[in-house]
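Researcher: Last one for today. Full complex below.
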Amino acid sequence: MTNLEKYDKLFLDAFRVVPDELPGLKYRGIQAWDSVGHMDLMSAMEETFEIRVSTPDLLDFSSYEKGKEILAKYGVEI
Amino acid sequence: MTGEELTGLAPYSLPREEKRALYRRELAALTRRHRERCPEYRRLLDALGIAAEGELEPEDAPMLPVSLFKELELRSVPREEVFKTLASSGTTGQKPSKIFLDGETASMQQRALYQIVSDFIGEKRLPFLVLDSRNVLRDRAMFSARGAGILGFSMFASKTCYALDDGMGLDWDGMRDFLAAHRGERLLLFGFTYLVWKHVVRALEERGERLDLSGSVLIHGGGWKKLAGEAVSREEFKERARRALGVEAVLDYYGMAEQTGGVYMECPCGHLHASVWSDVIIRRPGDYGVCAVGEPGVIESLSLLPRSYPGHAVLTEDVGVLLGEDGCPCGRLGKYFAVTGRAPRAEVRGCSDTYGG
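Model: Here's the assembly. Have a good evening.
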């Protein structure tokens, strides 16, 4: 699986959305991506890519797109 | 000031005059905003004859008694923009408050809480031992104050473990595994004062067990009312919690569902501190005049965070005393105070008396 496929799958599994819904998907934009969903997504993200995200980055992880920028800071190119 | 600018401030950075200038401006803007968007709030202000324009001295911002959030659904955004509803537990036997959060307000609360708490425990995420049951978070759309507290603090978590099972008994096996996996690490423990006391500290004592979580910090909040009934003082709670858990620091915080995020954290000197996002005004019961330093009165709590409901100036049912401003030996700027008890119910009516619907 490529990093993009892994990245997408984390969202699809966490929020039960379809791939078409991923672009533009925002934290607090859908009910499933609430703070509980966010922490679950972050844990899964950390496990999958073997990184440890700082709390400020965790709070800035505000959308599907923004998340890619943040992972890049940790050396994960999506 | 935009929400982002506001939550970008350093939490204890504003000296008195600068903070007053910020509050004069922001409280007037919030009052205007909610007046425009929340019909019940508008009717209330109209009934009280409060002018719609101009700056407001912080002491003059119209305050709502917390009980009003139990009686009315106060919302400043359309129903479809409400992302979460928070329900305060309130006093036993009463209707819970309902607080309506949109995405912007929830995000500001989370950022403010992050800044406040990281000023005390640092920015690093820590293994997180929740001294509560996972059960609290069962309903995702409607959180209790307990659930919101746990969620708010879980952004500091690297890994999370709930110490109590569904029956509020200690989950020994789960906890032991978690503690073994993080032996020697600094942990963050979090829970509600009364539950920490009853289901953790007392439970450990009764079993004759002591944990060794040296370097770790316990943050607890939610009030002392139930504990006062058991005649446990703050000092005794702190001492026995420290002994049973073996933690380095025990920090209380004061907060309310009506103003989530802008919590008042206790510093190492034992004082509760207002951050730049919140402030307290201690008022005389009776005429609601402003109390002098050292004079006990009813606590009014201001918050610059609420955008989706008119909760920026709330008269609580707690009694407290202002200890000083900008002068705490811990170095944090802003007012510092103590909460000393609950106001007898009849005393706290604020302006709901004059509310004619």
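Chain A has one domain: 3-73. The first helix of chain A runs from residue 3 to 15.
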